[in-house]
Amino acid sequence: MSMLQRVVAYLASIRLRSLFRAIFLALSLATVALALVVLREEKQQAFDNYREGFRKTGDQIAARLRHPTGQLALLNPQAESGSLVPLRPMLLPYAALDFDDPAKVRNAIEMAGCLVQYPHDAALCVAIGANPWAGGFIYAAGRLQSPALQPHPRGERRLDQAHRLRVQVNLRGEEYRWLAPFELDGELTPDRGKSLRGRLTGFVEREDADYVQTRPVREFRGWAWQAAECSDPQAGEGCEREVFYSLRLPVDLLREALFDKKRLQWPPPDLADIRVHVQVLPPGSETPVFDSNDEAARAPFLLSELQPLLLPGESLSIRKLGAKAGPELIHLRGSEAANGETSPLIGGLIRRLPVDDDILALESREEISTQNGRYEILLSGDVRSANRILARVVTRVSWFVAAMLGAVFLAWFMIELGIIRRIAMLTRRVVAAQRSATTAQGLDLLKVEDLRSGDELGILASCLHDLQRRVREDMAREKIRAEQEKDMWHAVGHEIMSPLQSLLALHGEEGDPSRRYIERMQQAVRVLYGSASPSEAFETTQLQVEPLDIDAFLQAVAGNAPCAGLGQVEYQPRGEPLWVRADEYPLEDVVTHVLKNAERFRLPDSPIDIHLDTSEGRAHIAIRNHGPQIPADMLDKIFEYGVSDQADSAAQGNRGQGLFVAKTYMAKMGGTITVRNVDDGVEFVLSLLRAE
């Protein structure tokens, strides 16, 4: 055996193991490849989503800052620092407030978002107008929940018998204090179910609380409106109703600055240092029902509230443009996610995955115009920050892929340990036993006792062990039977050869037809004499192949057919010799066996036709009968030893060996024998080499 043949044989012996391992390896690679493909698609989608989200974030921030609420935050960057209370006036995105009209005031302060929220549904906005020529006033407008307001009757000496507002303003070391009682407008009365409207008349607050000879502050203006409906429809008498009030506070220092043309600056540079304190006092008490210095106050919209809109890696910068441009008003950066850790391995893998678009840095610029100038909004981002977000997500779900790979490798290990290893051991032992022994004792080299168990392979090993034992016993019995048959053939051959020799002496003439059949009987006895079995005898027979005139041979066979009990065997001679390579007596046995089979199955009174044809280097003898056809599944089996169409053939003298002998003899003479079904019967074709 060549080296290549040995390699091919070895590869064939490990084909099953290699197939199992290749399948599990392919599963592992497919799992990793699937994870990488999905991860790349997720990265591409994350990059695309980030760019789209970045654009939307820029549009959202610009729209938010163009709204009056955003403009208020731009105009008041000082609100980002310091405490919320006491309140500091904010610069409105409007020239001034129409404080006399409740609808306009409410709409303006709610649109601007300057209201500071307090508990119990109270709110207050303290601001100044964007136009300095509207007057140096501070506006205070808000709402609260209160029972029916108690007005101050005109001419009443004391003010503490009515609802009143106490306002305090601290500016540049000076303090302004006003007390503004509520006074009904016209003939209105504070009855249930009626709305109230009245003035808030401002007086400079006095320590002695005597305001009889005191005139109100002329530039101090204020109004209060109370709704007719209760805030809680289920409440009874004395329910609380919403009160909305609006004040205009005259501050002399601010008004005087308007007339200083050389130093006019609006808004005031110390706007963040102004402190405003507003209290609402009930009748007969100094305990306020509303205090603007309440620590529970919640600030309005601030620029810092834009930070949650920023993703990690994004930054927002806002600065003022123009002649009064200064440093950045605010610089915000997106905060990193607090939850979720990132695996360095996964992070590095995501960074190396290719994407379609390689533009990484993003930038969005917007300009917003306000009453106080133009502002530039610069939003910067980095697409690679999407890698960190994706890495955190992938890190959390990566254990799914790890679990899949672990399951594949565990199954691989279990099959490798429990099945493949044992199959390999069994294969090696079988091959070793096959190479080391060619006799019955070779079975003893195959040891499978240690492979037996309760699973399928163990059952196979147990069955193989039992089968090995039975085969060993059958081989021993067969050996004994073969020896007995051999002895029997010796005895039979010895007893037959002596009478045949005597018959041959009686028919010694060459032209005697009986002599031919006696010689065939002697050859048959010599073939079988000393063999262990008939099949072995036929296969080991040595033939004397020599030139033979096949035309004359077939004439003799057809002529002697009636002597063998075969009638109506027809052959048309060629008229000239046709030499082939064959042994005459074995070839006659072959033709006789075929004719006997044709005789057994032909229709009554139908002939058996023999035809002789030639082709390139070969002669073809076709023997055809008229009768039933051979089943298709038996065409290749009828030439096997022991195959017969009769279940009890041995009992009737038919051992199923005639066609086996024919095929064996034809092969030894270099010829072939085939069979095929034709339209009205069966045709055997014997092919022999022509002799030159």
Describe the structure.
Among the domains are: 214 residues, Immunoglobulin-like (Sandwich), CATH 2.60.40; 80 residues; 147 residues, Heat Shock Protein 90 (2-Layer Sandwich). By secondary structure, it is α+β, with helices and mostly antiparallel strands. The two termini are 37 Å apart. The radius of gyration is 60 Å and the shape is rod-shaped.
Features:
692 residues; alpha+beta; Immunoglobulin-like; Heat Shock Protein 90; twelve-stranded mixed sheet
CATH topology of one domain, by name, is Immunoglobulin-like
Proportion of residues in β-strands? 15-25%
Query: How would you characterize the largest beta sheet?
Result: 12 strands, mixed
Mean pLDDT: 81
Q: How many β-strand stretches?
A: 23
CATH architecture of one domain: Sandwich
Sum up the overall morphology in one term. rod-shaped
- Please identify the top-level CATH class of one domain: Mainly Beta
Point out poorly predicted stretches: 648-653
